[in-house]
Each structure stands twice: as C-alpha cells, then as structure tokens.
Amino acid sequence: MSGTENSIQELFARAASLLLGNGVDAAGDYDAGRILQALEYASESSNRMDSEAANRADLLIAASRFARVFELASPDAPGLFSFGAQFDPALADPLHDGSPMVGVSGVGLTLRDAFQGCVGEGIEYLSQLQTGRDVLLKPGVDDWAGKLGPNALELVAAVSERCIQPERALSWCRATRLTDGSEVWLPADICLRRPPAQRDFAPPFPLSIGSAAGPSRDAAALHGLLELIERDAASLWWRGGQLARSIPPQEAGMVVEGLLRQLRHGASVQRRTWLLDITTDIGVPCVAAVSCRADGSGFAFGLAARPALEAAVRSATLEMCQFELADAVVATKRSERGDDALNAQDRTHLRRAAINADQCRLLQPVAEYAAHLPLHATEASAIFELIVQRLEKLGIETFCLDLTRQRFAVPVVRVIAPGLQLEPSEIVTARLQDTIARTGGGATYTGGVSLI
C-alpha cells in the first residue's frame, strides 16, 4: 500500500464503495481493487452482500477517517504483518475536541488480519468514548447499587474513594448482569472514556481491558470476556507469584514450531521462545509466550486466553512478536531522540526488557499440567454462556454493555467482572491478595517490575 497519507485514506473509502457495489467497478478503479485484493476482500460475486462483506466495508470506511494508517516491519519476526494507525478522538463526538491523537496497532499472519486487528482496535477505542447521546444517571443511585453483588460493591467503594470531588454524586451507566439479564447501573468512569473535565475519578485500570470489537456482538463479547480472564491470569502469575506450568509438547509444540518458522524466517538475530501455561482456577486455557535473546536479555511476552489451548498458543505467540516490535520501536526512539523522548509506557517496556529471562523463576515452567475447562461448543454465544456460568460458580459476577455506535456500525461490547484481577490495575482484589499470601508474591522474582 503506497502513496501519500491522504491518497491512502481516499483509497480506503473507494475500496469500501467498490466492495459494497456502489456504482463502481474494478476496471474503473484499479487502485481500490488492488486494496481489496491485498486484504483478501475481493468478493467472488460483486452482486452478493452478506454480513461479512458489510463488516469489512465498515472497517475500510473507519480507516478512511483515521489520520494515518501505516505498515510496520519487525526485525525479529519478518513474517509478521503489522499495521499502526492514529486518529482524533473527536471522530466519536465533539465532546472530545482538542484531545491528543490516539495510536493503535494490529498484527497477524496475513495483511487482512493485521489490518482488521488495527482498525478494530481503533473502533473499539472510539466506541468507548462518551457521546452527548449517552444516558447517565445521578439521582437515586442507592437503589441501583443495592442490586450489585459483593465484588461489584467493593469496586464501587474503591472508585468512590478516588473521587476528584467527593461531595459530588457519581454518574452511573446502564449495564446488564449476565447471570439473570437484569438491568443494573455501574459507575460511568469504568464504563466509558469520558472527557477529563467530566470525570468523577481517574479510572484505576485501562478501560480497554474487557472491551472488544468484532464481526458480531457475540464475537465481541466473547473476546472481551476472554481478555478479562487473560489479564486476571497474568496478574496472579506476575504479581501474585503463582508459578506457570508446562504445556504438553504433543498439544502445542508442533503448532508453535511451525508458526515461529513462518514468523522468524529472514530474521538477522534469532530469539529463543517457550510457552507457559498460566491457567487459573477458572479453567479457560491461558498462555504466556516468552522470548529472549541468546544471553537471556530482551525479554518479551505475549498473553492469550482462548477456549482451546492451541488457539491460546497461537494468539499469545503473535502478541509476543507484537511486543518485540514495540520494544524495537522504543529502542529506535531512544537512540534517535534520547531518554527525554520516552513516555511512561516506553519506560515500562525498557524495565521489563531488562529482566534476564533465564534467571527469573516466574519464566520457568514447573513440570506439571493445568486442568482446562472443557468448552466443546463452537458458537461464540454458547462458549460465552459456559464461561459466564463457570465464573458464577466461583462467585464472580459479570456485566455487559453494548457500546456499538451507529457512526462506525461495528459491534463493540464491554464486559466487566469486578471479582477478576486486572493487569495493570491500581485496585488489588481478594484474588490477588490471597495468591500473594499463599506464595509470597511475584515481586520476589521480578523486583517489582511491571509486566504491562
């Protein structure tokens, strides 16, 4: 994909029109046709319009509104496709005029997967932004808070202590409790990205955790729930000190070997890679993929929770390569512009990459295998329901908000499970406290260095 930034954005819009069959044909717009071919979006029948084609067109239209969309190359994984993008939050609503530009990225084994991951992440962020049409509640919140379970009430109490103006009543946002489908209200600032001047408190964790865009509402909801479980597992492992377990070679060895051959082909410096099973008592397979240089330096990782172990291995490996690329970008930024050019996230990357992977006990799996929850369903909605039921048995409530915006037309869902421990988060749940009490905590091995 070449050309100036403006011409590329225009091409995305024309490609969407071509995909939708809006009076344009491939012969008349060769460049837009090439975009569709590169992304494997070219339809076998230009007269057929289904939900998949409509979703792809929505992604192209969204990309045409971004300020920049660009490709990135990874020196450690030349076989990885990667996109980056930047956009103005005011795309969501004038409430956010003057906000700084936001950057997102996506990776995959194909150009299509990387593009969809990147643009989908951008739409997810934009859909979380508060708009002037969102209905928030202030009076009578005690009635709604009374419907919440103990974990949710603890979260409400924790964020209430962080209020910027304690005398001001919290704003609340409508949500659905998944166990019984009842309507509840949760603090708005853990549901939506609100303008700083309107916030009751600064969110104690990234609002991206548990939020997802997808080709369908069910797919988005499942992705968001799996991310919550992934971050809970990561926190109990890294901060809690819960040792990782081995993954049976026969289950994932061949998968990761073939994947790494494809990703690493052509790399000038080879990295060592291994897998850790960090699955918790929930039972949904959670994997950490770890890599480093020959001497143990340059530690990078990827995390994934998926219904099947093999899928978790693949996703974690791809995210590991994304972190390797991010580390390379930070190193380049530092060498070209100095330490003063680094932001807080850049410095977290540097501190984490300085850990010697061969000497950190948390990065060495114990010789035992985890028990995984049997999730034999194939439909996203059925898998989602099975996991929600499992969480309920553990006393963990789950809540859901549909954040799909008409402007972007791509399903976006936010899932909130207050009993799970997020990573990173300034709130320490009972799950993490209990794990630290049992193990002594992960700081024993990490020196308190943040994972994310």
TrEMBL record:
<dbReference type="Pfam" id="PF02624">
    <property type="entry name" value="YcaO"/>
</dbReference>
<dbReference type="GO" id="GO:0005840">
    <property type="term" value="C:ribosome"/>
</dbReference>
<dbReference type="InterPro" id="IPR003776">
    <property type="entry name" value="YcaO-like_dom"/>
</dbReference>
<protein>
    <submittedName>
        <fullName>Ribosomal protein S12 methylthiotransferase accessory factor</fullName>
    </submittedName>
</protein>
<keyword id="KW-0689">Ribosomal protein</keyword>
<feature type="domain" description="YcaO">
    <location>
        <begin position="106"/>
        <end position="452"/>
    </location>
</feature>
<keyword id="KW-0687">Ribonucleoprotein</keyword>
